[in-house]
Amino acid sequence: MSTAIPASTGPVLAAYEVDLVRGGNYLLQSVSLTVHRGEHWALLGGNGAGKSTLLSLLGARTHPTRGHVEVLGHRLGRVDMRELRTYVGHVDPRHPLTTPLRVRDVVLTGLTNTTEPVPRWTPTAEQVSQADQLIDLLGLTSRRDARWTILSQGERGRALIARALMPKPRLLLLDEPATGLDLAAREQLLTSLDFLREQNPELATVLVTHHLEELPESTTHALLLREGRALATGPVDEVLTSDNVTKCFDHPVRIAREEGRWAARAERRR
Ligand SMILES: Nc1ncnc2c1ncn2[C@@H]1O[C@H](COP(=O)(O)OP(=O)(O)OP(=O)(O)O)[C@@H](O)[C@H]1O
Fold first, then answer.
1. Are both 102 and 234 inside the same structural domain?
2. pTM score of the predicted model
3. Would 198 be classed as within a structural domain?
Protein backbone atom coordinates (compact mmCIF):
# COMPACT_ATOMS: atom_id res chain seq x y z
CA MET A 1 0.00 0.00 0.00
CA SER A 2 1.17 3.49 -0.83
CA THR A 3 1.69 5.94 2.01
CA ALA A 4 3.06 8.75 -0.11
CA ILE A 5 1.79 12.26 0.49
CA PRO A 6 -0.67 13.11 -2.28
CA ALA A 7 1.13 15.11 -4.91
CA SER A 8 -0.56 14.21 -8.16
CA THR A 9 -0.92 16.85 -10.85
CA GLY A 10 -3.94 15.09 -12.39
CA PRO A 11 -7.55 15.37 -11.27
CA VAL A 12 -8.22 15.97 -7.59
CA LEU A 13 -11.10 13.48 -7.74
CA ALA A 14 -12.13 10.90 -10.28
CA ALA A 15 -14.96 8.39 -10.06
CA TYR A 16 -15.42 5.92 -12.91
CA GLU A 17 -18.73 4.11 -13.42
CA VAL A 18 -19.21 3.71 -9.71
CA ASP A 19 -21.88 1.44 -8.22
CA LEU A 20 -22.51 1.24 -4.51
CA VAL A 21 -24.78 -1.57 -3.40
CA ARG A 22 -26.12 -2.12 0.13
CA GLY A 23 -28.55 -4.86 1.07
CA GLY A 24 -29.15 -5.63 -2.60
CA ASN A 25 -30.10 -1.99 -3.40
CA TYR A 26 -28.18 0.38 -5.65
CA LEU A 27 -27.44 3.52 -3.65
CA LEU A 28 -25.31 4.71 -6.56
CA GLN A 29 -25.38 3.36 -10.07
CA SER A 30 -22.85 4.04 -12.80
CA VAL A 31 -21.81 7.45 -11.46
CA SER A 32 -18.78 9.12 -13.03
CA LEU A 33 -17.23 12.43 -12.04
CA THR A 34 -13.91 14.23 -12.52
CA VAL A 35 -12.94 17.24 -10.42
CA HIS A 36 -9.88 19.33 -11.27
CA ARG A 37 -7.97 21.88 -9.23
CA GLY A 38 -9.80 25.18 -8.87
CA GLU A 39 -13.20 23.65 -9.63
CA HIS A 40 -16.13 24.10 -7.25
CA TRP A 41 -18.81 21.48 -7.64
CA ALA A 42 -22.36 21.43 -6.39
CA LEU A 43 -23.90 18.03 -5.72
CA LEU A 44 -27.66 18.40 -5.89
CA GLY A 45 -30.58 16.02 -5.55
CA GLY A 46 -33.67 15.31 -3.52
CA ASN A 47 -33.86 13.39 -0.23
CA GLY A 48 -32.35 9.95 -0.57
CA ALA A 49 -30.82 10.65 -4.02
CA GLY A 50 -27.39 9.44 -2.87
CA LYS A 51 -25.56 12.72 -2.26
CA SER A 52 -24.09 11.85 1.15
CA THR A 53 -23.24 8.36 -0.10
CA LEU A 54 -21.29 9.85 -3.02
CA LEU A 55 -19.60 12.35 -0.70
CA SER A 56 -18.46 9.51 1.57
CA LEU A 57 -16.79 7.84 -1.43
CA LEU A 58 -15.15 11.10 -2.48
CA GLY A 59 -13.93 11.62 1.09
CA ALA A 60 -12.34 8.14 1.18
CA ARG A 61 -14.77 6.94 3.83
CA THR A 62 -16.34 4.10 1.80
CA HIS A 63 -15.30 1.80 -1.05
CA PRO A 64 -17.36 1.42 -4.21
CA THR A 65 -18.94 -1.97 -4.96
CA ARG A 66 -17.96 -1.63 -8.64
CA GLY A 67 -16.01 0.88 -10.66
CA HIS A 68 -13.21 2.85 -9.04
CA VAL A 69 -12.55 6.12 -7.27
CA GLU A 70 -9.32 8.12 -7.18
CA VAL A 71 -8.91 10.71 -4.44
CA LEU A 72 -5.94 13.07 -4.87
CA GLY A 73 -4.61 10.62 -7.46
CA HIS A 74 -4.81 7.58 -5.13
CA ARG A 75 -7.10 4.73 -6.00
CA LEU A 76 -9.36 3.57 -3.17
CA GLY A 77 -8.50 -0.02 -2.32
CA ARG A 78 -4.80 0.54 -3.01
CA VAL A 79 -4.10 3.21 -0.43
CA ASP A 80 -4.35 3.63 3.34
CA MET A 81 -7.77 5.31 3.53
CA ARG A 82 -7.11 6.75 7.00
CA GLU A 83 -3.96 8.46 5.83
CA LEU A 84 -5.63 9.70 2.66
CA ARG A 85 -8.48 11.21 4.68
CA THR A 86 -6.04 13.44 6.52
CA TYR A 87 -5.46 15.27 3.22
CA VAL A 88 -9.15 15.88 2.59
CA GLY A 89 -11.01 18.65 4.42
CA HIS A 90 -14.45 17.32 5.30
CA VAL A 91 -16.97 19.71 6.83
CA ASP A 92 -19.67 17.73 8.55
CA PRO A 93 -22.37 19.84 10.22
CA ARG A 94 -22.95 16.96 12.66
CA HIS A 95 -19.54 17.55 14.25
CA PRO A 96 -19.80 15.66 17.57
CA LEU A 97 -18.04 18.20 19.82
CA THR A 98 -19.94 18.88 23.07
CA THR A 99 -17.31 20.45 25.34
CA PRO A 100 -16.81 24.23 25.67
CA LEU A 101 -13.62 24.47 23.60
CA ARG A 102 -12.66 27.92 22.36
CA VAL A 103 -12.95 28.60 18.62
CA ARG A 104 -9.19 28.69 18.14
CA ASP A 105 -8.80 25.28 19.82
CA VAL A 106 -11.60 23.82 17.72
CA VAL A 107 -9.81 25.04 14.60
CA LEU A 108 -6.51 23.56 15.82
CA THR A 109 -8.11 20.09 16.14
CA GLY A 110 -8.09 20.10 12.33
CA LEU A 111 -4.36 19.33 12.57
CA THR A 112 -4.85 16.22 14.71
CA ASN A 113 -8.08 15.24 12.91
CA THR A 114 -9.75 14.68 16.26
CA THR A 115 -12.87 16.11 17.92
CA GLU A 116 -11.09 17.01 21.16
CA PRO A 117 -7.50 18.27 21.52
CA VAL A 118 -5.02 15.41 21.78
CA PRO A 119 -3.57 15.27 25.35
CA ARG A 120 -0.02 16.59 25.59
CA TRP A 121 -0.10 17.82 21.98
CA THR A 122 0.88 21.47 21.70
CA PRO A 123 0.63 23.45 18.48
CA THR A 124 3.61 25.46 17.30
CA ALA A 125 3.46 29.27 17.20
CA GLU A 126 3.22 28.97 13.42
CA GLN A 127 0.23 26.64 13.66
CA VAL A 128 -1.54 29.00 16.07
CA SER A 129 -0.89 31.88 13.71
CA GLN A 130 -2.27 29.82 10.80
CA ALA A 131 -5.41 29.07 12.86
CA ASP A 132 -5.83 32.80 13.54
CA GLN A 133 -5.45 33.63 9.85
CA LEU A 134 -8.17 31.12 8.95
CA ILE A 135 -10.41 32.46 11.72
CA ASP A 136 -9.97 35.95 10.20
CA LEU A 137 -10.62 34.60 6.70
CA LEU A 138 -13.90 33.05 7.82
CA GLY A 139 -14.98 36.30 9.51
CA LEU A 140 -14.73 34.98 13.08
CA THR A 141 -12.04 37.33 14.43
CA SER A 142 -14.24 38.68 17.22
CA ARG A 143 -15.27 35.12 18.21
CA ARG A 144 -11.77 33.64 18.40
CA ASP A 145 -11.96 33.04 22.16
CA ALA A 146 -15.68 32.26 22.28
CA ARG A 147 -16.65 28.81 23.44
CA TRP A 148 -18.12 26.21 21.07
CA THR A 149 -21.15 25.60 23.29
CA ILE A 150 -22.36 29.20 22.98
CA LEU A 151 -21.66 29.67 19.25
CA SER A 152 -24.54 30.13 16.85
CA GLN A 153 -25.02 27.49 14.19
CA GLY A 154 -23.60 29.85 11.55
CA GLU A 155 -20.49 30.53 13.65
CA ARG A 156 -20.03 26.81 14.20
CA GLY A 157 -20.27 26.18 10.47
CA ARG A 158 -17.59 28.75 9.73
CA ALA A 159 -15.36 27.43 12.56
CA LEU A 160 -15.63 23.94 11.05
CA ILE A 161 -14.57 25.22 7.64
CA ALA A 162 -11.51 26.89 9.22
CA ARG A 163 -10.81 23.60 11.06
CA ALA A 164 -11.02 21.60 7.84
CA LEU A 165 -8.55 23.99 6.18
CA MET A 166 -5.84 23.64 8.86
CA PRO A 167 -4.00 20.74 7.14
CA LYS A 168 -4.01 22.82 3.91
CA PRO A 169 -6.09 20.28 1.99
CA ARG A 170 -6.33 20.41 -1.79
CA LEU A 171 -9.89 19.16 -1.54
CA LEU A 172 -12.70 20.47 0.66
CA LEU A 173 -15.98 18.54 0.98
CA LEU A 174 -18.97 20.40 2.42
CA ASP A 175 -22.06 18.46 3.43
CA GLU A 176 -25.08 20.81 3.49
CA PRO A 177 -23.11 23.64 5.13
CA ALA A 178 -26.06 26.09 5.07
CA THR A 179 -28.65 23.81 6.68
CA GLY A 180 -30.35 25.49 9.62
CA LEU A 181 -28.75 28.90 9.04
CA ASP A 182 -30.83 32.06 9.06
CA LEU A 183 -30.70 34.37 6.07
CA ALA A 184 -27.83 36.53 7.36
CA ALA A 185 -25.75 33.54 8.52
CA ARG A 186 -26.25 31.78 5.16
CA GLU A 187 -25.20 34.87 3.23
CA GLN A 188 -22.11 35.30 5.43
CA LEU A 189 -21.19 31.66 4.90
CA LEU A 190 -21.55 31.91 1.12
CA THR A 191 -19.51 35.12 1.02
CA SER A 192 -16.81 33.39 3.11
CA LEU A 193 -16.76 30.48 0.68
CA ASP A 194 -16.44 32.78 -2.34
CA PHE A 195 -13.58 34.63 -0.62
CA LEU A 196 -11.86 31.40 0.42
CA ARG A 197 -11.96 30.10 -3.15
CA GLU A 198 -10.60 33.37 -4.49
CA GLN A 199 -7.73 33.27 -1.98
CA ASN A 200 -6.91 29.60 -2.77
CA PRO A 201 -7.07 29.21 -6.55
CA GLU A 202 -5.74 25.62 -6.38
CA LEU A 203 -8.40 24.40 -3.95
CA ALA A 204 -11.17 22.13 -5.28
CA THR A 205 -14.48 21.85 -3.43
CA VAL A 206 -17.60 19.69 -3.56
CA LEU A 207 -20.68 21.07 -1.81
CA VAL A 208 -23.82 19.03 -1.16
CA THR A 209 -27.17 20.76 -0.95
CA HIS A 210 -30.88 20.40 -1.72
CA HIS A 211 -31.30 24.11 -2.39
CA LEU A 212 -30.05 26.16 -5.33
CA GLU A 213 -30.24 29.29 -3.15
CA GLU A 214 -27.44 27.80 -1.04
CA LEU A 215 -24.92 27.74 -3.89
CA PRO A 216 -22.08 30.26 -3.74
CA GLU A 217 -21.56 32.42 -6.83
CA SER A 218 -18.16 30.79 -7.29
CA THR A 219 -19.76 27.39 -8.11
CA THR A 220 -18.26 26.22 -11.42
CA HIS A 221 -19.78 22.75 -11.98
CA ALA A 222 -22.75 20.70 -10.88
CA LEU A 223 -23.85 17.09 -10.70
CA LEU A 224 -27.56 16.31 -10.38
CA LEU A 225 -28.32 13.00 -8.72
CA ARG A 226 -31.63 11.20 -8.88
CA GLU A 227 -32.23 7.76 -7.37
CA GLY A 228 -28.51 7.07 -7.28
CA ARG A 229 -27.87 8.01 -10.92
CA ALA A 230 -26.19 11.08 -12.36
CA LEU A 231 -28.85 12.88 -14.35
CA ALA A 232 -26.57 15.67 -15.56
CA THR A 233 -22.89 16.49 -14.95
CA GLY A 234 -20.76 19.40 -16.15
CA PRO A 235 -20.33 23.20 -16.16
CA VAL A 236 -22.91 24.73 -13.85
CA ASP A 237 -24.78 26.83 -16.41
CA GLU A 238 -25.25 23.79 -18.66
CA VAL A 239 -26.46 21.58 -15.83
CA LEU A 240 -28.67 23.89 -13.76
CA THR A 241 -31.44 24.34 -16.32
CA SER A 242 -35.16 24.34 -15.57
CA ASP A 243 -35.55 21.05 -17.47
CA ASN A 244 -32.77 19.23 -15.64
CA VAL A 245 -33.76 20.44 -12.18
CA THR A 246 -37.42 19.59 -12.89
CA LYS A 247 -36.37 16.01 -13.73
CA CYS A 248 -34.01 15.79 -10.79
CA PHE A 249 -36.60 16.77 -8.18
CA ASP A 250 -39.54 15.32 -10.09
CA HIS A 251 -41.34 18.61 -9.74
CA PRO A 252 -41.84 21.42 -12.29
CA VAL A 253 -39.53 24.29 -11.40
CA ARG A 254 -38.15 27.34 -13.14
CA ILE A 255 -34.51 28.24 -12.52
CA ALA A 256 -33.16 31.77 -12.68
CA ARG A 257 -29.61 33.01 -12.22
CA GLU A 258 -29.30 36.62 -11.16
CA GLU A 259 -26.05 38.42 -10.27
CA GLY A 260 -24.34 35.04 -10.06
CA ARG A 261 -26.79 33.39 -7.66
CA TRP A 262 -29.50 30.84 -8.39
CA ALA A 263 -33.15 30.69 -7.44
CA ALA A 264 -35.73 27.99 -8.08
CA ARG A 265 -39.47 28.41 -7.93
CA ALA A 266 -42.24 25.99 -8.66
CA GLU A 267 -43.89 26.32 -12.07
CA ARG A 268 -47.55 27.14 -11.59
CA ARG A 269 -49.70 24.36 -12.96
CA ARG A 270 -52.33 25.72 -15.34
N1 LIG B 1 -25.78 1.63 4.81
C2 LIG B 1 -26.91 1.71 4.10
N3 LIG B 1 -27.63 0.58 3.84
C4 LIG B 1 -28.76 0.64 3.11
N5 LIG B 1 -29.26 1.77 2.61
C6 LIG B 1 -28.60 2.91 2.84
C7 LIG B 1 -27.39 2.95 3.59
N8 LIG B 1 -26.96 4.23 3.64
C9 LIG B 1 -27.85 4.97 2.96
N10 LIG B 1 -28.83 4.19 2.48
C11 LIG B 1 -29.97 4.61 1.63
O12 LIG B 1 -29.41 5.13 0.44
C13 LIG B 1 -30.19 6.21 -0.07
C14 LIG B 1 -29.30 7.40 -0.31
O15 LIG B 1 -28.91 7.94 0.94
P16 LIG B 1 -28.05 9.29 1.07
O17 LIG B 1 -27.92 9.59 2.52
O18 LIG B 1 -26.81 9.17 0.28
O19 LIG B 1 -29.03 10.32 0.35
P20 LIG B 1 -28.96 11.91 0.31
O21 LIG B 1 -29.12 12.30 -1.12
O22 LIG B 1 -27.74 12.41 1.01
O23 LIG B 1 -30.28 12.24 1.12
P24 LIG B 1 -30.68 13.49 2.06
O25 LIG B 1 -30.79 14.67 1.17
O26 LIG B 1 -32.02 13.07 2.57
O27 LIG B 1 -29.65 13.64 3.13
C28 LIG B 1 -31.30 6.43 0.95
O29 LIG B 1 -32.47 5.80 0.48
C30 LIG B 1 -30.78 5.76 2.20
O31 LIG B 1 -31.84 5.26 2.99
1. no
2. 0.91
3. yes
